[in-house]
Design brief:
- It comes from Streptomyces roseus.
- This is Molybdopterin-dependent oxidoreductase.
- There is one protein chain.
- The strands form two sheets. This protein has a five-stranded mixed β-sheet. Strands 3, 4, 7, 8 and 9 form a five-stranded antiparallel β-sheet that branches.
- The longest helix has 7 residues, at 58-64.
- It is mainly beta.
- The protein has helices at 26-29, 58-64, 74-77, 96-99; strands at residues 11-16, 22-25, 34-43, 47-57, 80-86, 91-95, 109-114, 117-118, 125-127, 141-148.
- A hairpin with a 5-residue loop joins strand 1 (11-16) and strand 2.
- The structure holds ligand MTE and molybdenum atom.
- Molybdenum atom binds at residues 43-45, 134-135.
Length: 156
């Protein structure tokens, strides 16, 4: 960022069932190892799009925030969800198991760069390389919630 640029930096709130909830700027997201993903996704309105993203693995960021599951138990980890919201209210959910190396092992990113341009002002973008469609590529991320559902009422 050029000196003298006073535009506010976008931040996201990482909250939910976490021992260490946090407010993170895009610069903070560079504290984690940066991964690169070259993706093509389809949009119902704009057609196929090709982009190169770089950023932190969502799995790494949430793991360091102290998720309230028993990390040694796969069955416990399989109960958890994430909800990711953008500044315009667009929001989507992922299961923890999509990201977890023992399950889907998907390289989902909180991107800090899009096609070589830093996202510090715009805000991080969710990147779901395994998705065929772009709807979960939430841009200008403001909130990442992590938690579990209460068990469904089965009438037992
Ligand atoms: N915040 C936010 N992110 C969003 C959307 C949105 O409406 N708001 N649309 C999604 C959809 S449907 C697609 S296909 C991709 C790419 O959208 P773009 O063509 O507007 O970049 O962004 C996704 N991320
Ligand atoms: Mo889309």
């Amino acid at each position: 960022m050029a000196p003298g640029n006073n535009r506010p930096m976008a931040k996201l709130m990482l909250h939910g069932d976490l021992d260490h909830p946090a407010t993170l700027s895009v610069a903070d997201l560079r504290d984690w190892a940066q991964h690169r993903a070259e993706v093509t996704f389809d949009c119902a309105t704009n057609g196929p799009q090709h982009h190169v993203f770089e950023g932190a693995l969502l799995r790494d960021v949430v793991s360091d925030a102290g998720p309230s599951f028993d990390a040694r138990r796969r069955k416990d980890r399989s109960r958890f969800l994430l909800a990711v919201s953008g500044g315009d209210g667009h929001h989507t959910v992922l299961s923890w198991a999509e990201l977890d190396a023992d399950f889907g092992d998907s390289g989902v990113l909180l991107a800090t760069r899009l096609d070589g341009a830093d996202l510090d002002e715009a805000g991080a973008q969710l990147v779901v390389p395994s998705d065929r469609c772009g709807a979960r590529y939430v841009s200008a991320v403001t909130h990442v919630w992590f938690g579990s559902l209460s068990p469904p009422n089965l009438g037992l």
